[in-house]
Amino acid sequence: MKPTDRSYLEVNLPPYLQHDIDALQQGLAQDVLYLDCLFDELYGSINSAEWDDEITHEQAAYLREKYL
Asked: Which among 9, 17, 38, 54 could disulfide-bond with 24, CB atoms 3.0 to 4.6 Å apart, if both were Cys?
């Protein structure tokens, strides 16, 4: 049985991916006009990290569901 708290999937992410998550969260908090760019950047970073085997498919799916 998997834990209901899946935040463990956000541990030890590649720095560029963590940066894009942080930038999106900051953009949402500040209600910036370029949110679409931040979403696109994060989407690309998740895909890149998954294809480069830096994160698992499970992590990628979790991050997409949570942030996108």
From this structure: 38
